[in-house]
C-alpha cells in the first residue's frame, strides 16, 4: 500500500533496530534513567503493585521515547532476604528454586500488561554481589561502618539466629498470640523479634528459642545526616519533587526519623540466602564472615547491578549526574529508602553517583471496598487479568485513569466497565473508527487532496482556527504535564483531544452530504481528522501501546514522535489500512460475574472521580445501579463539560494532598459540591 508521509527531522520516532547495541546516554541530550521498585520474588503481583511502580514507570519511559530522548528503563526481582527464605520454607523448596519460579511469573505478568522494560533482571547475580560488596567496603574505608552487639532470637535446635520472619510469638502490647517477629497483625505495632513473649521458631514450633547476643555491622546514618539533609533539599528543588513523607512544599524535612535524628542502621543479617559480607581488613572481619548483607541495603543496589547485567557500560548511566536524570517510581511505603537511606549510602560511598532526580510515588489501590488479599481470594493477581478477557489496553487505561497519585483509590468493576464503554469505545474509538471508515468507504481508502500544505496548520485558518488552536493548546498541556510526571492528567488530556476530534466531525458535518455539496471542504476535514488521529497514536502510545500499534496498522503509517502542534503529515494519495474497531463493549452484567470470581462487593467511595469513571449516586439501602452508557454523538458542549469535570476532579485531589486543616476540609467540601453540579449538568446534556 502506498505511503505518503511528510519528511521532516524529528517527525518520526527513532526505533532501535532488532539486535541493537545497548542504549547509552548521549552527551548534551536529555538522558532519562528510569527505575521501578523491585518486586519481591516471593509472590505474584496484584493490580495495586502494578500501578504503583512498574506500569507508571512504563508510561513515563514510553513517553520519553516518543520524544526521542535516550531512555533506559530498568527493573527486576528483589530476591534476597528473610521474605524469600520464609516463602521457600513454606513451599518446601530452596530459595534459588523459589526465585527462579517467581521471576518467570513476574516477567510473564508484566509482558502481558505490555510493560516494556529495556531489561528485567534480578538481584541474585555475581555482578550484584560484586557491586554490593564494593560499596560496603567503600563505606568501611570512609569511616561510616561500626559493629554493634544486640540480643536476638536464637533457635537452639536449628543452631542459628532467627530472622524476624522466622519467629512468631505473643505480642507484648496487645497479647495477640500469632504476632510476627517484625509486626503484630492485630495491633499493627512494629516489633523487634526479641520483644515477643514465648517466641516460636517457624521451622518447627517445638524448637527451643532463646535470646543470644549477635554482632552486626551498622552504617552511621547519624554521621551522614547533615550531608543527606543538604542533598534532599537540593534534589527536591532541582527535580521538583511533589510533597511526600520526607519533605514538604516548603522544602522542610518532615520525616519523623530525621527530625528525631537518624541512628545507625544495620547492614548485615544472620541468614544464608544473601550477599556474603566482604572483609574490611579489620579485627571484626571474623565475626562477620558467616553473615549476609541486609536486604534493604542490597535491594536499591539492584538498580545499578541490573543495569550492569544489561551492559558493561553501566557506569555511563550510574556515574554520570551531569548528563543523566534519574526518575524512580514506587509506592508510598518505599519513599524513605529511596530519599534518605539509599542516598545516604551513595554519599558515604563518596563516588560521583547519578542520584535521584525526580520521585514519583502512589498511594494504595484498594479493591472493591477492601484490600487485595491472596489468601482470601480478593482481587486480581498476576495472570488472572488475562483470564478476564479484558484487553491489556483497557486494563492499562483504567488503572492509569484512577492512578492513586494523592489519595488512596478504589478498584471497581462497574467503573472499569464504564471506562471502557463510555470513554474508550464511545469517545476515543468512535473518533478513530468514524474517520477511517469514511475514508475507506467514500475515498476507496486513499486520503483525498485537501490543498493543505505539508507541515503545521495555521491557528488562523479561516475554517478551523478554533479546532486547530484547541488541539495545539492541549498538546502543550500534554507535554507540560507529562514532563512533570503527572501521568493521570496526561491521560485525561489525551481523551480531551479525542473529544475535540469528535466535536470537529460533528461541527463540520462530515458525511456523504458534505462530500456531495462541498467536496473540497470534505477532503479538508478528512485530512485534518486523519492527521489528528496520527497525533493521537503518539500520545496514547505510552498508555495503551497495543492500541497505538493497531491505529498505526490502520493508518498504514510509521510511529510518529509527539508533536508540539497539529500538522499535515499524512499527505494526499496515502493509502490507509483496513479500519477495525479498537475496543468492544463489555456488558454491565459482567461486573457481578467478575466480583463473584475475584471477590469483592459493589462499593463506592467519596473520592474525587477520574475521567474514566463518573461518580454515581447511591440510595441508602438500595443496590447501586450502573451508570448508563452514553451512546450518542458527543457535542462541543458535552466535551467542554467533561473537561471541566476532569479539571475539577484534579483540583479536589490537589486539595486533599495538602495538610489537613478546617480550612482545607471546608474547601474540599465546597469543591465536591461543584463537581456534583458539573456532573449533573453533563447528565442533563446527554439526556436532552
From TrEMBL:
<comment type="similarity">
    <text>Belongs to the class-I aminoacyl-tRNA synthetase family.</text>
</comment>
<dbReference type="GO" id="GO:0017101">
    <property type="term" value="C:aminoacyl-tRNA synthetase multienzyme complex"/>
</dbReference>
<dbReference type="InterPro" id="IPR001412">
    <property type="entry name" value="aa-tRNA-synth_I_CS"/>
</dbReference>
<dbReference type="InterPro" id="IPR023458">
    <property type="entry name" value="Met-tRNA_ligase_1"/>
</dbReference>
<keyword id="KW-0547">Nucleotide-binding</keyword>
<keyword id="KW-0648">Protein biosynthesis</keyword>
<dbReference type="Pfam" id="PF00458">
    <property type="entry name" value="WHEP-TRS"/>
</dbReference>
<dbReference type="InterPro" id="IPR014758">
    <property type="entry name" value="Met-tRNA_synth"/>
</dbReference>
<keyword id="KW-0963">Cytoplasm</keyword>
<keyword id="KW-0030">Aminoacyl-tRNA synthetase</keyword>
<keyword id="KW-0067">ATP-binding</keyword>
<dbReference type="InterPro" id="IPR033911">
    <property type="entry name" value="MetRS_core"/>
</dbReference>
<dbReference type="GO" id="GO:0006431">
    <property type="term" value="P:methionyl-tRNA aminoacylation"/>
</dbReference>
<dbReference type="InterPro" id="IPR041872">
    <property type="entry name" value="Anticodon_Met"/>
</dbReference>
<dbReference type="InterPro" id="IPR009080">
    <property type="entry name" value="tRNAsynth_Ia_anticodon-bd"/>
</dbReference>
<dbReference type="GO" id="GO:0004825">
    <property type="term" value="F:methionine-tRNA ligase activity"/>
</dbReference>
<dbReference type="GO" id="GO:0036464">
    <property type="term" value="C:cytoplasmic ribonucleoprotein granule"/>
</dbReference>
<feature type="region of interest" description="Disordered">
    <location>
        <begin position="609"/>
        <end position="670"/>
    </location>
</feature>
<dbReference type="Pfam" id="PF19303">
    <property type="entry name" value="Anticodon_3"/>
</dbReference>
<dbReference type="GO" id="GO:0005829">
    <property type="term" value="C:cytosol"/>
</dbReference>
<dbReference type="InterPro" id="IPR015413">
    <property type="entry name" value="Methionyl/Leucyl_tRNA_Synth"/>
</dbReference>
<dbReference type="InterPro" id="IPR000738">
    <property type="entry name" value="WHEP-TRS_dom"/>
</dbReference>
<dbReference type="GO" id="GO:0017102">
    <property type="term" value="C:methionyl glutamyl tRNA synthetase complex"/>
</dbReference>
<dbReference type="GO" id="GO:0005524">
    <property type="term" value="F:ATP binding"/>
</dbReference>
<dbReference type="InterPro" id="IPR009068">
    <property type="entry name" value="uS15_NS1_RNA-bd_sf"/>
</dbReference>
<feature type="domain" description="WHEP-TRS">
    <location>
        <begin position="637"/>
        <end position="688"/>
    </location>
</feature>
<dbReference type="InterPro" id="IPR029038">
    <property type="entry name" value="MetRS_Zn"/>
</dbReference>
<keyword id="KW-0436">Ligase</keyword>
<dbReference type="InterPro" id="IPR014729">
    <property type="entry name" value="Rossmann-like_a/b/a_fold"/>
</dbReference>
<protein>
    <recommendedName>
        <fullName>methionine--tRNA ligase</fullName>
        <ecNumber>6.1.1.10</ecNumber>
    </recommendedName>
</protein>
<dbReference type="Pfam" id="PF09334">
    <property type="entry name" value="tRNA-synt_1g"/>
</dbReference>
Amino acid at each position: 500500500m502506498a505511503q505518503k508521509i511528510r519528511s521532516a527531522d524529528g517527525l518520526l520516532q527513532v526505533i532501535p533496530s532488532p539486535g541493537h547495541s545497548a542504549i547509552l546516554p548521549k552527551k548534551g541530550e536529555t538522558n532519562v534513567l528510569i527505575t521501578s521498585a523491585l518486586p519481591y520474588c516471593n509472590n505474584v503481583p496484584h493490580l495495586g503493585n502494578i500501578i504503583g511502580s512498574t506500569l507508571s514507570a512504563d508510561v513515563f519511559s514510553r513517553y520519553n521515547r516518543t520524544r526521542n530522548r535516550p531512555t533506559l528503563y530498568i527493573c527486576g526481582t528483589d530476591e534476597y532476604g528473610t521474605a524469600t527464605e520464609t516463602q521457600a520454607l513454606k513451599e518446601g523448596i530452596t530459595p534459588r528454586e523459589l526465585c527462579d519460579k517467581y521471576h518467570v511469573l513476574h516477567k510473564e505478568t508484566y509482558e502481558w500488561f505490555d510493560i516494556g522494560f529495556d531489561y528485567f533482571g534480578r538481584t541474585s547475580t555475581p555482578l550484584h554481589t560484586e557491586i554490593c560488596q564494593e560499596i560496603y567496603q567503600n563505606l568501611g574505608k570512609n569511616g561510616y561502618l561500626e559493629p554493634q552487639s544486640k540480643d536476638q532470637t536464637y533457635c537452639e535446635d536449628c543452631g542459628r539466629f532467627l530472622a524476624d520472619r522466622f519467629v512468631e510469638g505473643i505480642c507484648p502490647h496487645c497479647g495477640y498470640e500469632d504476632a510476627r517477629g517484625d509486626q503484630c497483625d492485630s495491633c499493627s505495632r512494629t516489633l523487634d523479634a526479641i520483644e515477643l513473649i514465648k517466641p516460636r521458631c517457624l521451622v518447627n514450633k517445638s524448637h527451643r528459642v532463646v535470646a543470644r547476643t549477635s554482632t552486626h555491622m551498622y552504617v552511621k546514618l547519624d554521621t551522614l545526616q547533615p550531608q543527606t539533609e543538604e542533598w534532599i533539599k537540593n534534589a527536591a528543588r532541582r527535580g521538583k519533587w511533589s510533597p511526600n513523607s520526607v519533605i514538604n512544599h516548603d522544602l522542610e524535612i518532615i520525616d519523623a526519623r530525621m527530625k528525631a535524628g537518624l541512628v545507625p542502621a544495620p547492614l548485615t543479617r544472620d541468614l544464608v540466602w544473601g550477599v556474603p559480607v566482604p572483609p574490611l581488613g579489620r579485627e571484626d572481619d571474623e565475626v562477620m564472615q558467616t553473615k549476609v548483607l541486609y536486604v534493604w541495603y542490597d535491594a536499591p543496589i539492584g538498580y545499578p547491578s541490573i543495569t550492569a547485567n544489561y551492559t558493561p557500560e553501566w557506569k555511563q548511566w550510574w556515574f554520570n549526574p551531569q548528563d543523566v536524570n534519574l526518575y524512580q517510581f514506587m509506592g508510598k511505603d518505599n519513599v524513605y529508602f529511596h530519599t534518605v537511606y539509599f542516598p545516604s549510602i551513595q554519599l558515604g560511598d563518596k563516588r560521583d553517583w547519578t542520584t535521584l532526580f525526580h520521585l514519583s510515588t502512589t498511594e494504595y489501590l484498594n479493591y472493591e471496598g477492601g484490600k487485595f488479599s491472596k489468601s482470601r481470594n480478593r482481587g486480581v493477581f498476576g495472570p488472572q487479568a488475562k483470564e478476564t478477557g479484558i484487553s491489556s489496553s483497557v486494563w492499562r487505561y483504567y488503572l492509569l485513569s484512577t492512578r492513586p497519585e494523592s489519595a488512596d483509590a478504589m478498584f471497581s468493576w462497574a467503573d472499569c466497565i464504564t471506562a471502557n464503554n463510555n470513554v474508550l469505545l464511545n469517545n476515543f474509538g468512535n473518533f478513530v473508527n468514524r474517520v477511517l471508515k469514511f475514508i475507506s468507504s467514500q475515498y476507496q481508502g486513499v486520503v483525498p487532496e485537501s490543498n493543505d500544505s505539508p507541515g503545521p496548520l495555521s491557528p488562523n485558518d479561516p475554517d478551523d482556527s478554533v479546532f486547530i488552536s484547541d488541539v495545539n493548546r492541549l498538546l502543550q498541556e500534554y507535554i507540560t504535564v507529562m514532563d512533570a510526571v503527572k501521568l493521570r492528567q496526561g491521560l485525561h488530556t489525551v481523551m480531551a483531544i479525542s473529544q475535540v476530534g469528535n466535536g470537529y466531525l460533528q461541527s463540520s458535518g462530515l458525511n456523504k452530504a458534505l462530500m456531495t455539496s462541498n467536496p473540497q471542504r470534505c477532503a479538508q476535514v478528512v485530512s485534518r481528522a486523519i492527521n489528528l488521529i496520527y497525533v493521537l497514536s503518539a500520545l496514547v502510545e505510552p498508555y495503551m501501546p497495543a492500541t497505538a500499534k493497531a491505529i498505526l496498522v490502520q493508518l498504514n503509517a510509521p510511529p510518529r514522535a509527539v508533536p508540539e502542534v497539529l500538522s499535515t503529515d499524512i499527505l494526499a494519495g496515502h493509502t490507509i489500512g483496513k479500519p477495525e474497531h479498537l475496543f468492544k463493549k463489555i456488558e454491565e452484567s459482567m461486573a457481578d460475574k467478575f466480583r463473584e470470581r475475584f471477590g469483592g462487593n459493589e462499593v463506592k467511595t467519596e473520592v474525587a472521580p477520574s475521567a474514566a469513571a463518573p461518580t454515581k449516586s447511591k440510595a441508602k439501602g438500595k443496590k447501586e445501579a450502573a451508570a448508563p452508557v452514553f451512546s450518542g454523538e458527543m457535542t462541543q458542549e458535552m466535551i467542554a463539560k467533561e473537561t471541566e469535570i476532569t479539571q475539577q476532579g484534579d483540583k479536589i485531589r490537589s486539595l486533599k494532598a495538602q495538610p489537613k486543616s478546617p480550612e482545607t476540609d471546608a474547601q474540599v467540601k465546597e469543591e465536591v459540591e461543584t463537581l456534583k453540579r458539573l456532573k449533573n449538568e453533563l447528565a442533563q446534556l446527554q439526556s436532552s
